[in-house]
Amino acid sequence: MQRAIDLDFDTDRLATVVAGALPVLDPRQRRAGIAVYRLLSVGEPATPEAVASLAGMSVAEAGDVMAGLPTAARRGTAVTGFLGLQQSPAAHRLRFAGAVCGTWCAWDTLFVPELVGRFARAESRCPVTGVEIVVEIDPSTGVVSADPHDTLLTFLAQPRPYAGEIADQFCRWMHFVGGPAAADRWAAAAERPDVIVLTLSAGVEVGRLTNRLVFGLQD
Question: What is the pLDDT of residue 2?
Fold first, then answer.
């Protein structure tokens, strides 16, 4: 069965659904979370001291907030991974000037650059063909280039609400795929009616809107 590529998907509705399936962050967690992202993007672990400096908190407050960040991976008091971005490389990677980070899924590579305000190069492989996929993302304008040029994004349109686990419930369904035929094959093999296929620009737009709902970013 052919899976139509949704060029006119309701990105506002999809972002609302996605945001509702992610952990709810209070204002202090939002500030600390963005500071964590920015530190990881330059190759540094997010220590309470560094987060405090970026987020305008005392070290004690930053440490307290970081201890309660949902989805965070820790090494001692430092956070080494948070909500889609981790310090160590992974199958999906974001390459910034001076640092290479891992992400939990392909879609993470499309929304994190805006949060950290840095140009990034996403690197992954199509799960169907094995072809290497490279996407360059500008934090303000979105996708600058993609190789292959017809790379698409598989996406989960109806994720279950967050219950302490992100990777299996959500991230495992989000991949870059090398063109429409590969997208159709992956979606058919997934055997989930809520797996959809988005253009990269639609994936960026869903990320932009989700950033506003989850982190309170303003246009």
Answer: 41
86, 37 contact by CB (below 8 A): no
Contact 200, 178 (CB under 8 A): no
Q: How far apart are CA 88 and CA 44, in angstroms?
A: 10
Q: Are 213 and 19 in contact (CB under 8 A)?
A: yes
Could you tell me the two tokens for 137? 């993302």
- One-letter amino acid for residue 15 of the chain: A
End-to-end CA distance of the chain: 39
Q: Quick one: tokens of 72?
A: 């965070």
Rg (alpha carbons) of the chain, rounded to whole number: 17
Contacts of 42 (CB under 8 A, 6+ apart): 96, 98, 99
- 5 pairs with which residues across the strands? 197
Q: What is the pTM of this model?
A: 0.93
